[in-house]
Amino acid sequence: MDPVSIEHVAEFRRFNRYFTRRIGALDDHYLGQDRPLGEARLLFEIGEGVSLRELRTRLGLDAGYLSRMAKTLQAQGLVRISVHPEDSRLRRIELTRAGRAELGEQNRRADALAAGLLDGLTRAQRDRLTEAMSTAQRLLRLAGITVAPVDGAAPDARACLQAYAADIDARFPEGFDASDLVRPEEVSGEAGAFFVAYEEGRPVGCGALRRLEPGVGELRHVWVHPDARRLGLARRILSALESEAAARGLTVLRLDTHASLTEARTMYRACGYREIPPYSEHVYGDHWFEKRLSG
User: Fold this and answer.
1) Which of 99, 154, 203, 238 is most buried (CB neighbours < 10 A)?
2) What's 122's DSSP letter?
3) H helix count then E strand count, the chain
4) What is the pTM for the complete model shown?
5) Checking DSSP bridges between strand 216-224 and strand 252-257, what pairing results, if any?
6) Would you call 196 exposed, middle or buried from its count of C-beta atoms within 10 A (0-12, 13-18, 19+)?
């Protein structure tokens, strides 16, 4: 990827400063209530009840900081903390009746704040702003996702492959036989590589590279979880696989894809892959592609 410019960094920080000031994030009495933004956000995220571990992962909070905020809300009678009914090692936090009442008032005030900010715009300007914010959220999600190599036998690798198999089994008219999935030894060590995409610690995509012959590699099982689609993540995974292939001295990459996966064929063509005659007798292969790597 291209290096991040000083101008991009400065504009990003400028927007953050402006937006946090406009929504009152710097005020110890967020939305005019008797608590800072951190505690107010925690009330919102608790919802119908959740484990403290999940909250910590979801919000990216230090365990000690989260514990202190939870104890503060508990002392105020807004939450209950108890042993999780399904796992005694976990602590569960849920809103009390008073907590639900405060959250309702918080949501009312937040809606009023947003409406007040948007009131000075025309309908067309609001539509533009809404679209821009949606785009910004998608791009920030993509920026926050990491794509990392893992061992082909790692639990996250096998979990992604199982999810991939279930996904395409529902899409292929003939179904999908999971025995067609790559074996760990095919995508580990000198034989190949396996990449997993992580969003906030959760696997949301994968892709495999295996060596076919000297200088030639094959891509398999490029997949993105439904929750993370339309972000551009498949291209990110594809780029990681291509970089790995080049680092291994491979000069050609091949792949095949099923006729049902029209969006995959569109992506591969857009990324420089050209359709070629069949190079294997893969039962699920209807279209075959190849790309020559530069450098």
Assistant:
1) 238
2) -
3) 9, 10
4) 0.84
5) parallel
6) buried
